[in-house]
Amino acid sequence: MHPSGRYFGTNSRISGVMPVVGITLMIALLGAACGNTVRTAVLDLPSRPADAPGGDAFADYIRDLDLEAREERIYAEIARGNVPSSLRTLVPVEMIGEIDGRKHRVTIWVTPDYLSVGSDDDFFLTPLSPQTAQRIADLVDAAIPTSRMVDAIWASAKVRLDPAPIPPSPEMTTVPVFEGHNRTIRAQRYRHKAGAAALVAGHKKDVVVTAALATQPDKVAIYGWHRADGQPIQPLYTGHSDRWVDYSHGIRLVDRAILVDGTPRDIFDTLRNEQLAPLLSDDGVIERPRYESLAR
Questions:
Q1: Considering only CA atoms, which of 77, 97, 126, 84 is closest in space to residue 273?
Q2: Considering just the CA atoms, what is the radius of gyration of the chain in Å?
Q3: CA nearest neighbour of 280 among 101, 107, 134
Q4: What is d(CA 197, CA 87) in angstroms, rounded to the nearest whole number?
Q5: pLDDT, tens digit, 9 for 90 and up, residues 236-276
Q6: Could you identify which of 68, 97, 159, 210 might form a hypothetical disulfide with 194, taking C-beta atoms 3.0 to 4.6 angstroms apart as the criterion?
Q7: Angle, in degrees to the nearest 10, between helices 130-139 and 67-79
């Protein structure tokens, strides 16, 4: 068991405590020592209900709701398992960092795409406030990434989509604009022949955590939307209120269970560790690597 009380191992559920961990933990460590990542992380959500609406129908349902009501419906759909099957199995991403002249290898596990409601063929990518994003992350024992993680995810992505900005307007925070951008991304995936479970990046800005939020508790941090040359359109930015949610925002989840040089660790503990935090964060230690969740 990790000191935080969480278990790690092969086929661990992202939020689950496994009753038998010795063998699976040994397999994970042996695999890491051999240079192989054998652990599988999955979102611990119910199976998708037979009566669950597809993405288009769900978007139509929430189109005229205010932010609070809309996000409550999104949370409820995700909590009951109305997410694409391809989103459930997380993808390992390797990160290499150097501390005091020594290289370290970190493995994180991330959702292959941003959070969405619906099925593999009919999905609706859901921009969210950081509070609701954190509420969903807490539900499945996940974390919200840092900008350094976002860079690593883009570098590892099998499919890199070009950003598709929409001219700024008051409508950019509305569901119809979300839907239009969603259709653009679906078309991009089709042109790239992106498999449903492929690690995809470049098509959204990420909601991220950063040390700067410690002095700006009412803000949201965003970063990313990488161009083909790897440079992000959006530098790390904390100028928006945490109630600002526009079409360009995406929520990618990262499993709290990570490996640092083959040793299982908790991502929050690592971000709070003065020696290890630079492996995951460009701004060093993040004492509170999460947003306040508006749990109901």
A1: 97
A2: 18
A3: 107
A4: 7
A5: 999 999 999 999 999 999 999 999 999 999 999 999 999 99
A6: 159
A7: 20
